[in-house]
Amino acid sequence: MAQLELVDVSLRDGNQSLWGATGLRTAHVAQIAPVLNRVGFRALDFSSSTAMGVSVRTHQENPWDLLRLTRKAMPDTRLQFIGTGFRFISWERAHPEVMELVYTSLVNAGMDRFVVLDPTHDMDAVRETARIIKRAGGTGAEVIAALTYTVSAAHDDAFYAGIAAQYAACPDIDRAYVKDPAGILTPERARTLLPAVLGALNGKPLELHAHASLGLSPLTCLVAAGLGVRVLQVGCGALGNGTSLPDAEKLVANLRADGHTVDVDDRLLAAVARYFDSVAEAEGLPAGQPREYDAAFMHHQVAGGVMTTLRRQLSELGMEYRFGEVMEEVGRVRAELGYPIMVTPFPQMVIGQALANVLSAHSPNEAARYDQVPDQVIRYVLGKFGKPTMPVEPSVLDRILSRPRALELAAEPPPLSVSELRHRFGERTGDEELLLRFGMPGGEVDGMVAAAPPVTHYNPDLQPVLRLLRELAGRRPAAELTVDKPGFRLSVRGGQRD
Amino acid sequence: MSGRHGFRRVLVANRGEIAARVIRTCRRLGIETVLTVSDADAGSVPARLADKVAAIGPPPAAASYLDVDAVVGAAVAAGADAVHPGYGFLSENARLARACAAAGIVFIGPTPETLEASGDKLAAREHAVAAGLPVLPGGHVAGPEQGVELAGRIGFPVLVKAAGGGGGRGLRVVRDPGELGQAVAVASAEAEAAFGDGRVYLERYVSPARHVEVQLLGDGQRVVHLGTRDCSVQRRYQKLIEEAPAPLLADGLRGRLHAAAVALGEHLRYRGAGTVEFLVDPEREEFYFLEVNARIQVEHPVTEAITGLDLVEEQIAIAEGRPLRVRQQDVAFDGHAIECRINAEDPRRDFLPSPGTITGAVFPAGAEVRVDTHVQAGATVPPHYDSLLAKVIARGADRGEALATLRGALDRCAVDGVVTNLEMHRGLLADAEFGKGGVDTGYLGRFLESVAYVQENHGSA
Fold first, then answer.
1. Residue B295 catalytic?
2. pLDDT tens string A36-67
3. Under a CB-based contact definition with an 8 Å cutoff, are residues A106 and A370 in contact?
4. Can you tell me the distance from the alpha carbon of A189 to that of B220, in angstroms, rounded to the nearest whole number?
5. What predicted TM-score, i.e. pTM, was given to this entire model?
6. Alpha-carbon B183 to chain mean position
7. Which chain A residues have any C-beta within 8 angstroms of a chain B C-beta?
8. DSSP state, residue A14
9. What letter would DSSP give residue B60?
């Protein structure tokens, strides 16, 4: 029986998977951070360039300040930043110098654990990113490399063991994790995959990050604990389950029932979970629910966060009813593009293409597909994100590369260096703002700069009252307002102030 | 290998608003609280806020809140990792700190050695001198002739004090050198008669004087200051209004106060939150060490309001063995804050305490207003303890703004069932002299006379 540690993903992947990355603001995070620090988590999956972009765009809050504030409130817990190593907020490839500045700035703001993740498992890219991070963060920065799980002819146990062996040999990589963004790792497959990977890691620790989208991962985690995986990634309360990760409280109970030890403060774990429950209720956000197995899901393999975002986009277009049709097309596009693993930025790319195909199909006619091709797809086909794991369908490849835009993008100038960025955005712009301006439209950064500093406390229980007061304040003055229900009566009468 | 960090459970060994205040921070940090209560406080608001309560004795403080064995026993029984003593009661008691250590419990405060060094006024003065701080010039005198010689060196006016005296007896101010011999002789005779100790002590008489203090945080290695507070509005050493930063201090003087406090903190290898109090001579722009308060102060919220720090959180972090989390260059002062202490006492009857039952309590809420209190309608104000009901704190971009916000906040305060000093506070905040800022320690007495509180007192008592 083993001693297990937990990594909580509520604030990053939980928020992204269940709440489209927009649910949590600085106030929500700042309020619970001191408690999260004392639960006993090994680390927190805390931020990503996507999350930072949302802070600016949706909340007009400075994401760098949020990193610093959380670090101060959480001196004892590693805070993880997840990224691909080649882009920051924008989908375009960034100059290596810019990525180095990104990692240096993140270390300075308090991040001390970094995921290295290359969606095509391009090992040279992984090693280079790990090296940059170690140079930025010294020995204090922990580097954890991803083995992104998918089901395909190419991705067998030997494939993952081969990558794990390269991680084991890389001095800049401290540990590895099996990342199952779609939640498709079954307990059966785990029994062969995890020992193969653990064997090849040569003593470097292995973590498991398996989404609960198909209801598999709560069981897969238990199996993994028995196989030698020492860290399991979880979500708390409303930010666990659903398309997020397994629910922490239930997993701890199950691990202990299997005879394992988990050194977390149960009272505080419950406090954190109930806090997220209350935030969900107060803000009208959906709480993660246990999911049922769905065989059709294997077809598209789209992760939770992406799915939530797609639903939101469709509903904004008034086309929510075409969700099934789009998902069907996602499966086809993914196959045609050579089965990219459905991990950022590829799901967004595949979905973008699928959406374009569905929207341009006035009638279900084959010629309309690939009429519109987003730049990201063209760049992918051109190999700008690394070499596709399997070849792109030849007819699709021709159709895409014959577009005039493909020629333009092929001749795209290399990304701007740091000094070129400084020249463009002003020599006196600080590094943090420079990086935001590099990754985002200027107007969005201006909006953030102009906004008042964020509130740093939050009481979910007060929200209904505050909402009532705001709505009352917005009404035409009424002589009397009464809320009447069995056992409760609130009556407010208008009058002169005395 | 343990994944958990820091205290899990803290015993709060206090009552009143500071108990509620400490519990609030513990709750925010996810620390469980156990509150000690006397029989008089079993139903108090803090008792309901705490996760658990531990009854430690009957109402008189000597039999409960001042009982070291009862407090340590409660901490052990509760399985507490640490004890937060608040202010007053046992907060500066070295015996409690030692008993905690012996029981394997962390005392959230300075070391016993620091408590002893700061608790004894003469020892504290010696440490201050050793650290290079100015103390009031003075010394013992054997007789009238030596007195004249010493007074000549100190400079007039001087204060003639009975060395063994207290409570203001045997104190006289001498402004004219020709009167000194007589004054020393009389003081000595009086002191002999009153205390059986005829020794007389001379020190420089500073008037007008201001009471300015500097907040410190230390981790035993490093010390930072969190700026000044002015507590000159006081009556018989009982502070009623405090503000941060101290207004109308020359920048050089303010800097020297900061440096002196840090020097003493470093000399003491200070660990925890503490305050160095100074007497400031605004005319000569000089200052003198008064004492060290080795605990959280009642008036700490004004410092919190302008630094954005939670001092109780910092106390806990230090007690958990963490190095200071703020460097001096991280401490930024933003705006001005003023606090009024709302007490259950009657300014018209010589501040006679007014215990009883609160029948109604309304406190203001709003931006830049903070109220630290433990009372609500139905709460009792027991006669056994101090009469502080609430602290109303307002912050503003500058002193004028803070003052305006505080006036508005006090206008929205109402406490019924007991007599309070609310009306006096409203008068003080409306007073032109206080409005200008930088009042001296004699101000409150003059103000009370000017609004005829004193005369009414004589007339009606």
1. yes
2. 999 999 999 999 999 999 999 999 999 999 99
3. no
4. 55
5. 0.87
6. 33
7. 3, 5-6, 31, 34-35, 37-42, 72, 75-77, 263-265, 267-268, 271
8. I
9. S
